[in-house]
Amino acid sequence: MAEATPTAPKNNLPILGIILAVIGLAISAYALIHHIEVKQVGQTDAFCNINATFSCDDVANSEYSELFGNPLGLWGIAYFLGLILLLIAAMVKDEYRRDTLPTYALMSGLGIVSSLALFGISYFQVGALCLSCIGVYTVCLIQGLVTFFLRDEIPSSWSLKGLYNGGFYMLIALLGAIGGYQVVEPMPQNNFTPDVPKSAEEVREILKNMKVPQIKVDRSAYSGMGEDYRKGGDDAKVTIVEFADFQCPACQQASQTLHQIYKEFGNQVLVVFKNYPLDGSCNKNIGGNLHEHACKAAVVARCAGRYGKFWPMHDRIFAEQRKIDASRLELWALEMGITKEQLNECLSSKDIIAKIQADIEQATQLNIQGTPAIFINSMPAGNRSYEAIRSQILMHLDL
């Protein structure tokens, strides 16, 4: 006797699955757009940046935000689009259902496993959580419940051929999403260089036709609230100024890039560090405490600078960025040889706070929206890659 063909689902669970997948697709699209923006500017004012624990910028800036060179948001779009295709096919025709529902169940399980794995990586490795990512994880978990309640509708006999046929829908979604992204991606991060000149001639033309706001560098410990900490040649032809936040992952990457630049060019360049902590306790431009220890990190680093140890402290804080808290910052200062009395004096110093706020005011005048912000001879660097900064330095050296 021939095996009876299962009838089409008689409940609304597939419709619920489609609605959930549409929600997941929308959240993934937001995550993709946010990822592109973060790669362009480093830090954003996205709603999901609440504090150091819940910071989608920190997650997007981490090495785990991409898979095979594509943002996780794009993979989410492909995944949920595939689920939509599978469920629509299951509702349209009985003969499709035999292949699509088992594949849907398999992909639903994969979504749950992936969500748990990514949550663990985000919490334990990155040290921050992303609200939009949590939204995607939640959708995947609810999809798992839909699959559970659909279990009686799913054919009991699975076959490799059936899964292969069902997988075809996922392949269409994957190729469509990735292919479409490669074609219409608005601003590829590797080529994002807003208002950055391409040649020495363009630099000359810009300098001739417009007034570039000069970024003041305090070179004396007795100037105002104190000097700007820097390395390289004070008389160098090229001055690189970085506004940064010690808790910003993109700033950590930028610090490594500028260290490479300094190693290559030495006294041909002057590398200057200025503070722009994304912490409302000292930065009036920031609502709340996105990076709750950033202001104290800036104070401790400048304290170390008083005793000739700014750059070792700068490097230590960035190297241990995921471990930053108030007590560790003080411990690292003591390990640098700064006494408890010296540290306490720094922590209560009005001059150090005033200097940090002077940096913030300077950043405000330059319309800096996020960190890191890098300027080469007072001109925005745009692309922060080593190759891009190096090429711009060479252009300025040729002037």
The biggest beta sheet reads:
5 strands, mixed
> How large is the share of residues in beta strands?
5-15%
Number of spatially distinct domains: 2
The helix content is: 55-70%
Strand order of the largest sheet: 3-5-4-6-7
Unreliable parts: 187-194
Determine and state the CATH class of the largest domain: Alpha Beta
- Going by helix content, strand content and strand pairing, the class is alpha+beta
Let me know the average pLDDT. 86
Shape call: elongated
- What CATH architecture of the largest domain would you give? 3-Layer(aba) Sandwich
Feature tags:
399 residues; de novo design (two linked rop proteins); Thioredoxin-like_sf; transmembrane helix; alpha+beta; 57% helix
Record the SSE blueprint.
Blueprint: H1 13-41, H2 56-60, E1 66-67, E2 70-71, H3 72-92, H4 94-126, H5 131-149, H6 160-184, H7 200-209, E3 230-232, E4 238-244, H8 249-265, E5 269-275, H9 294-306, H10 310-319, H11 326-335, H12 340-347, H13 350-365, E6 373-376, E7 379-380, H14 386-397
Parallel strand pairs: 4-5
Antiparallel strand pairs: 1-2, 3-5, 4-6, 6-7
Helix pairs in contact: 1-3, 1-5, 3-4, 3-6, 4-5, 4-6, 9-10, 9-11, 9-12
Overview of the structural elements:
This protein has 399 residues and is α+β, with helices and mostly antiparallel strands. It contains 14 helices and 7 strands. The strands form 2 sheets. The chain has a 5-stranded mixed β-sheet, sandwiched between helices. A two-stranded antiparallel sheet has the order 1-2. The termini are far apart. The model is unreliable at 187-194 (pLDDT under 50).
